[in-house]
Each structure stands twice: as structure tokens, then as C-alpha cells.
Please model this.
Amino acid sequence: MNSSSSKRFNAIAGGYASSEVHTGSPTLDRLHTLLPRVDSVCDLACGAGHSGLGFAGIASRIVAVDPAPNMLAQVQRLAAERDVAVETVEAFAESIPLASASFDLVVCRLAAHHFSDLPKAMTEMTRLAKPGGYVAIIDMEGDENPTLDALNHEIEVLHDPTHVRSYTAMYWRELFAANGLKVEACENRCWEVPGGLTVKRWCELGDSGAEALQAIQDRLASVLPEWLSELEITRDSDGGFRIPVRTLLVLGRKPSDSRA
Ligand SMILES: C[S@@+](CC[C@H](N)C(=O)[O-])C[C@H]1O[C@@H](n2cnc3c(N)ncnc32)[C@H](O)[C@@H]1O
Model:
């Protein structure tokens, strides 16, 4: 994340507290079903903290990490409303000032596509997990087909100019393996919002602006219908497009005999 990205997230933090994409999702529910009981959770690039706060009543320690102070203020506000104890840490994913091997779960949702150095961030996430602990990623999914991936990327950058890259399931598997994490689940083509989201609403949430909204609509109108159906983008009766906010969920486990 650079300073323009940091400013952007500080400016739109309020919307993340109530956004229908972020407050909860089928993939977050799925993550809970895949995990055993965890007692300590680090929510990395937490935004308004929905992923970490979802472990209230389960984990005795929840730590929320984000470089945007206004996001951390939203976490504290939501935690106070719910009477949940949460520690907040202002930091980038690439360098996290927390002790190694201190969490049963490190979760990072809808954020890795912003990281300027994902391999470094992944090393940090792995470092923070206890031996036998988990690292979970939920993020926008890249496409194995280069043409579709390029279109997907173009649309994402129009929506959010700070978008770095959506990665494929294959890439995530390689990254987990390179960090010595055993992949216990890798599920793709998940939808963060059942029924999808109109491009208009998607752009509202991202504060993309009217020009970007128009550019996305125009670009989608220009592509082959087969491409849209591959990306599961549909059209409403008013002609507007609806996107699935398609994600993947990768859950990895650090070996119990790991030293770090
Ligand atoms: C879409 S929001 C995350 C939403 C949140 N994880 C959730 O599931 O509700 C993306 C977050 O990533 C954070 N971010 C961007 N670049 C980052 C980086 N390099 N390190 C850590 N956080 C970063 C932003 O400040 C922002 O809060």
C-alpha cells in the first residue's frame, strides 16, 4: 500500500463498517466450519474488523492489524458496541510488530490484492501463526485464462486504482507451499455476496466515482457474452451489470513441529 492507497482507505473507512460485502459472507461462514476452535486470532488488513470480530465469544484474544488509522477506529467502535475486547495495531502486512508464533489463526480477507509485496506479507502471516496454527486467505480470485484475467484486472483497476493483483488458486497453493504451510482447503469461485452486487453499488462501496462506473459499464458492454458468463457477470433488466465479487478461500496449517 502506498500513500494514495492509505488515503483512500482512510477516507472510505466508515462505509466498510456497514458494507454488505464486508460485514459477513458465505466464505467467512465456511471458514468457521473448516476450523477447530481457535483461541487467538490475528485479523490482518482488518478494515473495519469484521473477520476478527466474527471470532468474538470463541477466541480470548483478537488482534486487528491495518495501516489505516480510520479503519482501526471503526474496529474499536464496533468492538465497543458489541462489548468485545480487541487489540488494534497500526501496521503494514509486510512488517508486523507482533511476536512470532502467537496466534492459532491469522486471517486476511479481501485485502491481499492490495499488498505491494505479497510474498513478504505471507512470510509475516506464517511467522505469526503458532506451530499447528492456521493461515487463512479470502481474496478476489484471478483467472487461469489470461484473457479473462486481463479483463478482470482491468475492471478491478477501474473500480479501485490501488488494486495490485487478484491471484489464482494455483498461485496461492504455490505461495502456501513455499512457506511450509499444508493446504487443508482451497475453494474457489465463491461469491462474497449471494446474488452478486450491481456495479453501481460496487462502485459506491469503493467510492470509485461516476466516471469509473460508466467506464466499467461501457467495458462490460463491449465484451463477448461468453466472457461475461465465464466471469459470472450478469445483466439486470435495467441493463446494468451485476458482479459476483468472486473470491477464493485458502486455509493452510503450519506443521506442529515447526520451530518458528
Ligand atoms: C477491503 S479492506 C479489508 C476488509 C476486511 N479485511 C474485511 O474483510 O472486512 C482492505 C484493507 O486492506 C488494508 N491494506 C491495504 N494495503 C495494506 C498493506 N500493505 N498491509 C496491510 N493492510 C493493507 C486497507 O487499509 C484496508 O483496510
Remarks:
- The longest strand covers residues 129-140.
